[in-house]
Each structure stands twice: as C-alpha cells, then as structure tokens.
Amino acid sequence: MKSLSLKPLTLMLLAGGMLLITTLGLLAGRSNAADAVKPDAAVSKPALTVTLTQAKAASLPIRLAANGNIAAWQEASVGAEVGGLRVQELHASVGDRVQRGQLLATFAADSVQADAALARAALAEAQANAQEARANAERARAVQGSGALSAQQIGQYLTQEQTAQARVDSAKAQLDAQLLRLKYTQVLAPDSGIISARSATVGAVAGAGSEMFRLIRQGRLEWRAELTASELGRVKAGTGALVTAPNGERLKGRVRTVAPTVDAQTRNGLVYVDLDAPAPTAKAEAAAFKPGMFARGEFELGASSGLTVAQSAVLVRDGFSYVMRVGADHKVSQLKVQTGRSLGDQVEILAGLKPDDRLVASGASFLSEGDLVRVVEALEQKSTPAQVKPAKSASK
User: Fold this and answer.
1) Measured between alpha carbons, how far is 156 from 104 in angstroms, rounded to an integer?
2) Residue 200: how many other CB atoms lie within 10 Å
3) Domain check: are 337 and 230 in the same one?
4) From CA 106, how far away is CA 85, in angstroms rounded?
5) Is 0.85 surpassed by the pTM of this model?
6) Which one, of 250, 282, 293, lies nearest residue 72 by Cα?
7) Parallel, antiparallel, or unpaired for β 221-228 and 56-72?
8) Is residue 317 part of a domain?
9) Is residue 29 part of a domain?
10) Residues with Cβ within 8 Å of residue 373, at least 6 apart in sequence
11) What three-state secondary structure class fits 90?
C-alpha cells in the first residue's frame, strides 16, 4: 500500500523534470539562433558611403626654403652742399615718394644773394678796367716801331691788358662760385625713391656735408637670404624666388648675385635677390615689405614628376600619414604612406602606395581597419572628391 501511494508523486516529479529540460532546450536554441544572425547583420551594414580616388602622376616644383632680411637695394645720402646756412623750410618727410630733382629743403639765401651781387659788381669793374687796358694796348701796338713810345712802355701796356683780362676771368669765377652756392640753397633729390630718414630740422644751421635725408633709390628692395655652404651651389644668378612678408603677402624676385664668401662663424652665405616693385602707394607705411624686416622665402629650382593624391584622402594619426585602400570586397585597409611636397589640394606620396590602389577620397578619419564601405561612384581622377555621405540603415 505504501508503494502505491508514492507512485503519483514520482510521476509528477518526472513530468516536471521533463518540462524543465524542454524549456532550457528551447531557450538555448533561440540564443544560438540570435548569435548566428548578428554577425551577418553587422557585416551587411556599410560604415560609410564613399567615393574613390586614385594616385596620379604630376609635375611638382622643386623649392629651396630660406630665411633672410629685407634691405634697400641702394641708399643715397642727401646732405648740405654749403655750410653756415640756416634751414628755412623742409618739403619732404619720412616715407614720402619723391622724384629725381624734386625740392626737398631750402636754406635761407639772403647772405648768398648779397655775395652774388658783390661778385657781379666786381666782375663789372674788372671788365671796365680790361676794356681800358685793351684800348691802351691797341694804341701802343699802333705806334710800335715809330719811336713814339719806348719798348718798355709798349711792354707795360701789353702786360696791363693781360692782367686786366685775368682779373675779369677771376671775377667771373667768383661770380660762378656764388651762383653755385645760391643754387645749393635748394636741396634736390638726386634720384627717385622713398625717404627713409630725415635728420634736418627747420632753423638749424647745417654744416657742409652734413646728412639731411636718406633715400632708398628707386624704391627698390632686396632680400638677403641666408643659405648653408652646401645649398649655395644650388642657387645661381637669375633663379626665381618667392618671398613672404610677416603679414602673409608675397612678392616675386630674382637672384642678382651670390656672395663670394661664407661667414666663418655661421658657415652661411648670402644670396641677394632683387624684389619686384610692389604696387605704388602714397606712403611707405602702407607697403608690406620694409627694409630691416625678416622674411622667409623659397627659391624655384625647377620641377620633377611625382605621385600625388588629393589632400582629403590623407589621414594623419599619431604623427604619421595614412590612406584608406578599398579592396574588391569593399573593405578598407589602412596604409601608412610618406608624404612630400604639396601643390594646391594635391600632396605627393613618396612611399607606401601603388598607382593602381583604390583609395577613399574623403572621410577616411571616420573609418577603421576592416570597415565595410559602399561605393556610390566609379573611380574618378578628381582633385576634389565628392563629400562623404552617411550610410543608410540596412532596415530601410
């Protein structure tokens, strides 16, 4: 009887165990099915929709960078030709552009005019005396040999004629000297250019030869670039250059000469570059290039061929340059490349890339190694690729 009473309980326990095993099996089957579906869904969804580009051959300029100072091509010192005269008026200031022969300053000319008047009077007196001496000499020549005058008297008259003429010449020279002093009371520009300095002041008495103005002749400037001894041999007279001012403005130039010596301390040599004349302005302060200014520039040494890609296709990570190559399966792989010169929106690739590699044209920074991409256009040789478009969801 006891064994018969336990039989229903045993059956119930067996039935519950079987139900539990069945439930666990169903849950495990669903989990495995979900795990099997997830990778396929992830693989089928592209990370980005991109366009492709490819490296191409291009001619790139060869440039040599250098630094140096801007200086005046030549400076003219304009000073007083006469001394002891008071500066009456100044007609030019620092920064003014002047033309050859333009009036820069005037001296008080009253004393010089008085000296010139005295010289004219002395000349008139000498000419009158010379005229009288000439007449006496003519009469002496007329009676010469007749015995009316002795040989000594005739010689005196002829000597007086010569002496009077010499006094006339001396008076003329003195007058010319006074007229020259009168001319020098006006200080004129010896050449066209820009006034870079003015030391004269109104009312001051200038000494002979004292500097009043300093002039940049013809407004011409030069760039004195410093190159190492090994770089000097690459630059020759006539080589083109492009100089950049601190404010970013650029000016073309051409090498005039290379210094024949190298500094013994720095081991650098100077290259003198004639700069093209900038646009004329009323004042020198409006110009971007000024003497004494430090500027950087590049010498144009020719061109060479190279492999280039669009700048947007190059990715910089951790100080290195990379590109994203797209394989036949539309998966990307990261390639480390070595970049070189730049030309507009193109950058030279020195190593790490083959000409037939297909690259992501833009948006490489959003991709990682092994990402799947969707290509929406055929391979294009464009310098500016299309914008990156976000990939659409796989559910749409």
Assistant:
1) 53
2) 19
3) no
4) 10
5) no
6) 293
7) antiparallel
8) yes
9) no
10) 46, 47, 48, 49, 50, 326, 330, 331, 332, 360, 367, 391
11) strand
Helix (H, G, I), strand (E, B) or coil at 244: strand
The encoded tokens of residue 55 equal 């490296």
**Mind giving me the DSSP string for 222-243?**
EEEEEEEHHHHTT--TT-EEEE
**pLDDT class of 151 with cuts at 50, 70, 90:** confident
Q: Do 231 and 203 fall within a single domain?
A: no
- Summarised one tens digit per residue, pLDDT across range 168-207 is 999 999 999 999 999 999 999 999 999 999 999 999 998 8
Quote the CA–CA distance of 323 and 334 in Å, as a whole number. Answer: 6
Polymer length of the chain: 396
Q: Please write the tens of the pLDDT for every residue from 228-285.
A: 998 998 999 999 999 999 888 999 999 999 999 999 898 999 999 999 876 655 455 5
Encoding tokens for residue 172?
């003329």
Contact 282, 338 (CB under 8 A): no
Neighbours of 16 (CB within 10 A): 10
User: Which H or E run includes 7?
Assistant: helix 2-43
Would residue 4 count as lying in a domain?
no
Tell me what pLDDT residue 206 has. 86
Identify whether residues 86 and 211 lie together within a single domain.
Answer: yes
Could you tell me if 101 and 189 are in contact, meaning their C-beta atoms sit under 8 angstroms apart? yes
Beta bridge partners of 337: 321
Q: Return the CATH number at 311.
A: 2.40.420.20
Give the orientation angle of helix 151-183 with respect to helix 110-142, to 10 degrees.
160
Q: How far is CA 288 from CA 139, 220, 252, in A?
A: 79, 13, 13
